[in-house]
Amino acid sequence: MFRNTPLAAAVLVAFATPLYAQTTATPATPETASQPASSTPVAGQSTSSQPADSATLPTVKVTSQNNTTADFAPDVSSVGAKVPTALRDIPQAAVVVPKAVLQSQAVSSFTDALRNVPGITIGAAEGGQIGNNINLRGFSARTDIYLDGFRDRGQYYRDTFNLESIDVLYGPSSLYFGRGSTGGVINQVSKQPTLKPRADVSVQAGTHDRYRTTVDINTPLTSTSAFRINAFGQSLGSSRDVMKSKHYGVAPEVKFGIGTPTEITLSALIQHNRDQPDYGVPALNGHPAPVNRGTFYGFTDDRTIQDVQTLSARIEHRFNDNLKLRNQTQFSHYSTEARATNAASVLTGPLPTSAALTNGNYTTIDPSRLFVKLQGKDRNINDHSVYNSTDIQAKFNTGLIKHEVVAGVDLSHETYSNQSFATTTLGLPSNTIAIVPLVDPSYTTRPSNAKTVATNLAESSANGVGVYANDTVSIGEHWKVVGGVRWDRYEASIHNSINLPSYATQTNYFTSVRGGVIWQPTDWQSYYVSYGTSFNPSLEALTLTNRQQNLPPEHNKSYEVGAKWDLLGGGLSVTQSLFNIEKTNARTLNADGSYTLDGDIRVRGYQLGLAGHITDKWQVFGGYTYMDATILKALDGTAGKTPANTPRNMLTLWTTYAFTPHWEIGGGPIYTSSRYAANNNFVQVGGYTRWDAMAAYHAKKYDVQFNVLNITDKNYYDALIPSDGGRAVPGNGRTFLATLNYRFF
């Protein structure tokens, strides 16, 4: 499977690590016990007593000597079984990016937070879609983003101001989440009210006119209830010319019955974004055009305005320690008004009749003599969704076998509308606003003689029902078997005012399965094998390409084998896995314009993860992913090609060291190898390594932190867009940030 790569030796060495660690481990001593470390076993690990003659001591989890420096290695994930589950009990690769890592990196955007997750690449606005567009292990995950367990399908730019962590589960996971999840799912975990008062304020300023303020206030109301509110506001510039954005948001939440058998939580998220849309740089000679990093193809009055309102209610009742019932409801509304421009064809001359380059835009003409056609991407988008989920968690024994069952019913109703517009300037072809030089285009407002007319209005709706059950069976002290099944009914329809099809409807039924075997020979080792499936209906995103309406869903399956270890007394979590994900009936385009389900896309790879303490002062968080992705079969000429936006190698590492009780430094690289902008592989975007660094002073009441992003001012491309031959959005240049965090309690 990894023939022709240098990873075979690395895998052997990595799997030998726990054996070496076991033979060289040093038992805790009274001297180490006196250090500021907790002796609490890691959550989810076995606490069963050892034989009297065993020299094995309970797992010790090392924590920082500084109370203001939180741990980089959470013990549980919110997405492994739809309820908080110990990472070692999940038979799939999972990464939890905690708030501590985000604060250390001065991360505020969802996209920047995901740079800590190997296997994730960033897409940009495309095909009527705006906001966070994610690829996970080579497959689109735009509709696989969740907020507290509910699908967060809105097309907006998410912020981290109200997040406790971001949890990623790799591989097909329709068992718990229904449609989608080919490469995995991403769950945002919101902050929760607690009975401990707090009032935190953070202010940040940086180069490129970056300013940000956040507030986090938690107030107990009674001995069993509390109210918490998080808010933020920011104004951000960029090393890209013209680019700027202003965002603000508030997230109130109240919780009743804290610590009692019945807990009720009511929460909301209200966010407003105003951004300058960026459709990137066109290709030239098979790579992004060699223009200055700041070059912007658009107009100064372009804008994207987004509003998000999400209301949630959750009630949990604990009958006893072995039986728990939960019901959750979420209502969301997302609206987007986009007045945007993209660089379309590269032309050999300044006239509308000039020849357009294709297939990677290869030419011997000097870039200074080339031109770019600018097209409008104006549209108004409205998304509504109502989700309800009821699940029961039960623990019981059948003889000597222990069961942990999660079963439930998911209900959903979603609507979507997209009114598109075409803008044409007098004297130019349809939907052409301007023709500008490829090198050094001028920045102006949209021409006054440009006329905008409404074109297609797409209106969609969908209803879904899912019923599932999963059982984790413990056999003895060292073995667990995980198995589950889900049945889905997904009914969707779409109406187009101009485009085809004028009306289409489809009802899909699908049964998803998940299975895994876990072997845990000690309380610090866990080995697993697993299998899972998922499905992708044609109307999954409530949008549809004509002639796909009669197709059944695509099928996905995944095989995975891996290991999870808690080394260095439980302070350092090390995970690794080998995986194989295959979409066995991918939609492919026929020569006559119709589609069939006879494509085959496969991604094989290896993943390594690190999180936690090497010493009580030294923390690390990072990972590496190797992806061997191939389009095995397709009728559109892409067979044998590499899927878009799927680099072969990705590495992320962040490490900090508290060299005094108050001073801390940190930093690390982000590496991504070269990748293609589209499945046809005409346009390749080079790999890059970006280095970031941090220095902080921690006191009881406050922190002062300095971050430098992209220390070397590396010119690299961040997000990729497959259309118009392939476009790429440049990343930010060197950025300095200064942050002050103040705690009133």
From TrEMBL:
InterPro entries found in the cross-reference section: Beta-barrel_TonB, Beta-barrel_TonB_sf, Plug_dom, Plug_dom_sf, TonB-dep_rcpt-like, TonB_sidphr_rcpt
Listed Low complexity bias regions: 26-41
Keywords, sorted A to Z: Cell outer membrane, Ion transport, Membrane, Receptor, Signal, TonB box, Transmembrane, Transmembrane beta strand, Transport
Coiled coil: none
Chief location category: membrane
Pfam families: Plug, TonB_dep_Rec_b-barrel
Annotated TonB-dependent receptor-like beta-barrel domain residues: 272-711
Gene3D superfamilies from the UniProt entry: TonB-dependent receptor, beta-barrel domain, TonB-dependent receptor, plug domain
GO cellular component: cell outer membrane
Signal sequence segment: 1-21
Chain positions covered by the region annotation Disordered: 26-59
Mode of membrane association: Multi-pass membrane protein
A molecular-function term among this protein's GO annotations: signaling receptor activity
Residues of the TonB-dependent receptor plug domain: 87-185
Localization of this protein: Cell outer membrane
GO BP of this protein: siderophore transport
Positions with biased composition (Polar residues): 42-59
PANTHER family from the UniProt entry: BLR3904 PROTEIN, FERRICHROME IRON RECEPTOR-RELATED
Family recorded in the similarity comment: Belongs to the TonB-dependent receptor family.
The name this protein goes by in its record: Putative TonB-dependent receptor BfrD
